[in-house]
Specification:
The protein is an alpha+beta fold. 29% of the residues lie in helices and 25% in strands. The model has no long low-confidence stretch (mean pLDDT 94).
């Protein structure tokens, strides 16, 4: 079914969840549809990639066959747009320095390295500006704003 315009009735779901979906869709249409199909206390939970990190973007540019043409990792404004459709939006940011552990994933010290880098990531994310450089976010958008023009 088309995720931007589903056949579901208004207020059908308590929760809608997905991983790596929104960055393939038209966000205005998707957010509108999520707000429509969720009940008034409903939540939308998504894990999505961000598009501000220059190192990750270089990797994306070097590996175009690993992506689809419609892919557009989310930007800060895409996350802010959620506030137009939901009364309560929480964004959690993950992975800046932890990406540097990947080449060492088969080494005995990988676990401790990853734990250290995660702690450093959490410190970095205390500064709002650096959150945009995360690799991924978890979006938790609650209490959709209901629009009278829904079908």
């Amino acid at each position: 079914m088309n995720a931007e315009r589903t056949d579901f009735e208004n207020n059908t779901f308590d929760i809608v969840a997905g991983s790596g979906i929104l960055h393939h869709l038209n966000l205005e249409s998707s957010y509108t549809e999520l707000a429509r199909i969720l009940n008034s206390n409903g939540s939308a939970v998504f894990i999505e990639p961000l598009g501000h990190n220059p190192i990750i973007n270089m990797y994306r540019a070097l590996t175009p066959k690993m992506r689809t043409e419609d892919e557009h990792p989310l930007k800060v404004n895409d996350l802010k747009l959620l506030n137009k459709y939901f009364n309560n939006v929480k964004i959690e940011y993950f992975s800046i320095l932890t990406l540097f552990a990947v080449p060492f994933r088969n080494k005995s010290f990988f676990g401790i390295l990853l734990k250290i880098l995660k702690c450093l990531d959490n410190i970095i994310f205390l500064i709002p500006y650096f959150r945009r450089f995360a690799w991924t976010v978890i979006i938790n958008a609650k209490k959709p704003i209901k629009i009278e023009t829904y079908k």
